[in-house]
Amino acid sequence: xxxxxxxxxxxxxxxxxxxxxxxxxxxxxxxxxxxxxxxxxxxxxxxxxxxxxxxxxxxxxxxxxxxxxxxxxxxxxxxxxxxxxxxxxxxxxxxxxxxxxxxxxxxxxxxxxxxxxxxxxxxxxxxxxxxxxxxxxxxxxxxxxxxxxxxxxxxxxxxxxxxxxxxxxxxxxxxxxxxxxxxxxxxxxxxxxxxxxxxxxxxxxxxxxxxxxxxxxxxxxxxxxxxxxxxxxxxxxxxxxxxxxxxxxxxxxxxxxxxxxxxxxxxxxxxxxxxxxxxxxxxxxxxxxxxxxxxxxxxxxxxxxxxxxxxxxxxxxxxxxxxxxxxxxxxxxxxxxxxxxxxxxxxxxxxxxxxxxxxxxxxxxxxxxxxxxxxxxxxxxxxxxxxxxxxxxxxxxxxxxxxxxxxxxxxxxxxxxxxxxxxxxxxxxxxxxxxxxxxxxxxxxxxxxxxxxxxxxxxxxxxxxxxxxxxxxxxxxxxxxxxxxxxxxxxxxxxxxxxxxxxxxxxxxxxxxxxxxxxxxxxxxxxxxxxxxxxxxxxxxxxxx
Length: 545
Known about the structure:
Number of helices: 20
CATH architecture of the largest domain: 3-Layer(aba) Sandwich
Largest sheet: 5 strands, mixed
Radius of gyration: 37 Å
CATH topology of the largest domain: Rossmann fold
Structural class: alpha/beta
């Protein structure tokens, strides 16, 4: 590091300092990292103040005015400290011309910041710098500032912060991997368990708002419509709700009178934590010196499933995530989405269809044709009333065929033939297991014969390789039999999610947004107005059909 002499044509000679008495500023700082160092008694704010006061009293003939600047609970790696900023402001305004600290780490634990202050700013401003522990006094002993003690001590202070930050991060990551909640405040909808602050329990009052947000969104309400609904009914936004419960919670981005906004609703709709899975580590600071939060890729998040009681069912959460990916439009002056918003595609160019009203009737057209180029695709027009009727009929037929097919399969599974097939598979599996054990014994006996000298090593090697091939062959057969038995046992006679969904709507006679969300993946529209409805459970339907 450069020395303080010859800084901008100036030297550290006493001639450049004002005559006594000095207008001194005592700076005191304490942070959690100092407590972790094990010397919190000597570093406490009161003890630092006492030490500096005694020094100024002993040298009362040198100091006429002594101001005091203090930062309690502030890290030394960050210069954005109120007391520190006030100190620098008074230095720049020449209100003080002497800075006194207990030791170098009080001023800063950032190596570059400490060097810049001591060897640049203070020298240029003719400010006397005193650090009691290191015996530094830039006026009485100018060389004390330029000695190796200063840069080495600053490096050690900087490294101490790095090591402390690293250890804390390792402990936090360990807790995250174990599914322990480590946040200062629980996510809106939950609260910390009084018996275990690292676990979450449902806050029913806030959880009811979460459930309503998900329900409204699935019913077709846009995020902005949900925001208006919540604010209209006087529902407190998350930050205000926490304050109303007595939490000392501060949102740096909140306004004077914070309200619900689309971003808040969007974050709630995307938060997997509401399904009972602990999701942490979505943000991190850039470094132990730069405390700005940055987003972390999802693959690096800490996710532990089923750590707390869910507010939202996982299938409902998955439906919402699918809807969030769709290109949707809200009707003018309406709070809800159009019925087919986000579900219609041109069968040829695969782009979304656009909605238009012509002479009082609603039509859908290929967006490429309508908005981009009439030569790139054709109209693919279809009237809303006809489309709605066709989709309604198609879904009704799917439901009827699916439920009817599963009923037939259930009867087949209960038949003697089905039971005999299961018994046959059990017999084959048991037989192959016995064959596997027998081959393993032969292989072991061959090894013993070689050891006893009854066969040569060459014979043993050939026989062992032959038995190994037989073992692999039997293993493959056993795996295939196990798969076949599993398919027989897992035939769709059970009430799986798809069957539950179809049963739920088997008597419906009107197409709604709720039905589309739960059953339909997308709808392809062809040039002649014909359609193909792709259901979410189509693969399962084809498997059992």
